[in-house]
Amino acid sequence: MLNIVFLTNSWLTSFNQPGLCITVAMLLHYFLLAAFTWMCLESVHFYLALVKVFNVYVPKYILKCCIAGWGIPAIVITIVLIINKDFYGNGSLSKSHPYSNFCWIQDNTVFYTSVVAYFFLIFLMNTAMFITVLLQIHSVKTRTQKTSRFWKR
What we know:
Its main location: membrane. The chain is mainly alpha-helical and 153 residues long.
């Protein structure tokens, strides 16, 4: 959906409908945040599968993942819309190119808070999960080598 909204954004902007532009910008923002959130959930799943291998039963795991994956971005979008729906709009990249119009976030503070900071938090969490998984794999490898040396003796 992110790709579809992104690819149709310029075309939909050409209709010069402010409501349509706000909707397209909001959908683009939502699906971008949803992609980041699902990436984070994938790293949590990776952690559970490789580090917490045993006794990891989480009741209604998929439902909880879906609520987090689709709900957290919806909360961010709702907060932005409640504060001011005009944060979304038509931003021209260049005045000399009329077809370069693009519906997106118009306020830099909102952009840096709701996209860049959000991505940065997801990136930090993914990095922490990745390092934890690498350390776990390394410790398993070390234990296996020690065990094999013991049996060789």
